[in-house]
Amino acid sequence: MDPIRNPYAPGAGTPPPELAGRDELRELVKIALARIRIGRPAKSVLMVGLRGVGKTVLLDRLRDEAEGAGIQTMRIEAPEARSLPAMLAPELRQALLRLSRSKRAGDLARRALRGLAGFVRALKMSYGDIEVGLDYQPEPGLADNGDLEHDLQALLEVAGEAAAKADTAVAMFIDELQYVAEAQLAALITALHRIAQRQLPVALVGAGLPQLPGRMGRARSYAERLFDFPTIGPLAVEDARAAIVKPAARENVEFEAAALERITQATQGYPYFLQEWGKHCWAAAETPPITVADVEAASATAIAALDEGFFRVRFDRLTPSEKRYLRAMAELGPGPHRSGDIARELSREVQSVAPTRSNLIAKGMIWSASHGDTAFTVPMFDAFMTRIMPGEDWRS
Ligand SMILES: Nc1ncnc2c1ncn2[C@@H]1O[C@H](COP(=O)(O)OP(=O)(O)OP(=O)(O)O)[C@@H](O)[C@H]1O
Ligand SMILES: [Mg+2]
Q1: CB proximity list for 365: less than 8 A, separation 6 or greater
Q2: Which of 186, 247, 309, 318 gives the lowest tally of CB atoms within 10 Å of its CB?
Q3: Residue-wise over 80-116: b if at least 16 C-beta within 10 A, else e?
Q4: Ligand 1 site residues, Cβ closer than 6 angstroms
Q5: pLDDT band at 370, cuts 50/70/90?
Q6: pLDDT (tens digit per residue) in 174-217
Q7: Which residue's CA is minimally distant from atom 13 of ligand 1?
């Protein structure tokens, strides 16, 4: 059918035509932010889930909704290579500049901008990657100790005071939080803890891989009490159907019931896969309705597209020994697997493959569901590994 009208949108962070099954969570975050804004206790929300379940698009949607409610937002993606303060500073600057235009809160916002100037200068030594234009001179003694934990707390406090004065809140939307280094994560948690005690309107809405709660807990033992960690999972069958059917219905295209059934089965409700299947079904069909035969034709091209995109981008970042480790896991099935079993599959000792396992965790490819267990962070990665490294060659 007409490729120009194809509504589906597979892609990292690409907004879906229909954001299915996330209403409850949107409501939860809306309430949490509204409470934090008026100084009522509420936990910040950190969404955790596997690759491709829709964390990024949900975070973006939540941010739009917060902006719509008049909250000052910051959007940050924690990369593997840059520091949190370097990412935070320019975003905070913009939020504070916006606040500084407020009549009531202008003075406090300008004070916070002075705090930012002190923060940046003092931390430049330890975090050389901080680069941000400064609008005001530092205020001596304000957020300029050179110690991230102390300075971040001081900085967010003055920002919170400005936001409170303006009857708004400052909300940080941080994606890929699991990549933030532990000491920086600890500083962020401490700052938010202090902010909560002072009932200042500063909130964090975050997203990350399933290892995030464990990392937060190791950084600060009280993290569990400060945050909610809702799981973002595959869509329930009804929601998965809606994700496929609704965008097509808007184009007057229907799916046969059996075709829809095939799609929800093949994708297991994973949002990225749903978008890919939707797109390829549309392309495969000559005319509506979309049939089982169309889905069958589409499955092959959808998998090929995933192999070249979604899976491939991850695979290409791996060293040969990391690939072998994942291939051994795949040999055992979808998982999770015991570290001992994986080592045995590799004909190695657990200790000798432990560094490879650690690197794979740091890269966000696998995570430890419980002690000694190892699971893929990418859904259906086991099947991909056996497609890309078929046979027994990998053993040698
Ligand atoms: N609720 C949803 N309903 C339908 N499609 C969705 C939904 N959420 C996400 N998608 C689609 O799934 C794909 C992946 O979304 P997104 O990039 O947000 O996932 P992610 O969890 O951030 O993945 P990663 O961990 O790789 O960053 C996108 O194509 C998006 O349009
Ligand atoms: Mg993402």
Answers
A1: 314, 318, 322, 326, 376, 377, 378, 381
A2: 309
A3: eebbbbbbbbbbbbebbeebbebeebeebbbbbbbbb
A4: 9-16, 18-22, 49, 51-57, 243, 271-272, 274-275
A5: confident
A6: 999 999 999 999 999 999 999 999 999 999 999 999 999 999 99
A7: 272
